[in-house]
Write a structure and sequence with these properties.
Blueprint: E1 8-12, H1 16-27, E2 31-35, H2 39-58, H3 64-74, E3 75-78, H4 81-85, E4 90-93, H5 99-112, E5 118-121, H6 128-132, E6 141-146, E7 155-160, H7 166-178, E8 182-186, H8 195-211, H9 217-226, H10 233-240, H11 242-255, H12 264-271, H13 304-320, H14 326-337, H15 343-347, H16 352-366, H17 375-379
Parallel strand pairs: 1-2, 1-4, 2-3, 4-5, 5-6, 7-8
Antiparallel strand pairs: 6-7
Helix pairs in contact: 1-2, 8-13, 13-16
Amino acid sequence: MKADDIKTVAVLGAGDMGHGIAEVALIAGYRVFLRDIKPEFVDKGANRIHDSLAKLVSKGKVPADHYEKIKSELFVTCTDLDEAVKEADLVIEAIPEIMDLKKETFRQIDKSAPAHALFASNTSTMSISEIGSVTNRPEKMLGLHYFNPAVLMKLVEVIKGDKTSEETLQIGYDFVLKNNKVPVRVNKDVPGFIVNRVQAPSVVLFNAILDENIAEPEAVDAVMRKLGMPMGPYETMDYTGLDINVHGSKYYAEAIHPDFAPGKTLMAKYEAGELGKKSGKGFFDWSNGRPQIDVARATDKFDPMDLVAVNANEAAKIVEQGVCSFEDVDKAIINATGNPMGLIALIKNVPPEQLTERLAKLAEKFGKEIFKPSRLIAEGAYR
């Protein structure tokens, strides 16, 4: 089987990620079955796709005749799981991040999907190997991790599970290219893969800054906004949901190191139901729309280079594990975040001894073992 043999794609889950992935595949010319558990969920996802496609047609980004073909031939919605996958060449799961739910879904579709069909999960953190273990085709299981919003963001992490065949990984890589996206291979199934894993230590750092009363959220966000970032770290956490941050931190604490556990301030917000934008309040007040960050409040108690250092240190760890190359880290970061420069490019000219000293001081200051300089950083392998 080759990527050219994929004609029909089943997308399971019509929410934020699922409907976006389905739209990307429809634009690329695939026949797409979009499935969710309730008709109203499917309808909501389908309506979002049609609204988006209509805008893309009006802007000349999708031909009008292709949109007509999508409506008349390519796009199928359903709630029946067997119906969704029975003709699929590729199944992409984008359901809630609950391992038992994912496993049960793949158990079911393993019985209904054609024998040649490949299975993919859009999970952002969970083990592809564990999800695929419940099927009779673990060699045909891979990760296809799109970034939100899938229609706009270019990166897709193509993840190899413990038993994923090289053929399956290559088909996934080529499929991503056919969807006009940028694939990056993740050669080892590690928690967080590349982008989320590399950025995970920054959450630990920002939690520590709050817990140690070093600076207020607005003061830190003002620093990053002055540097040209469209959104600071605390506003970003609010935007994605503090509950998402808590769950992700707890998972990393179990899967990687206890240092990743959510901070006291974050947990207090979470337990109070202050989850950010979705609840109207988190680190900031969202009741009147997006919070206004006063860049004049930028603090000198936070050095953005600390953020770069801890994330680059984590990148070095996964490179040492054989997950990817330093070049892949930058390719992934640029295409997932829209940042003009990659993480490794930012430290390219920093002497290893300076970076090592900075990391050692951060590890001591905050009592975080994960901030201790890794071997490849100390050796300057990033240069």
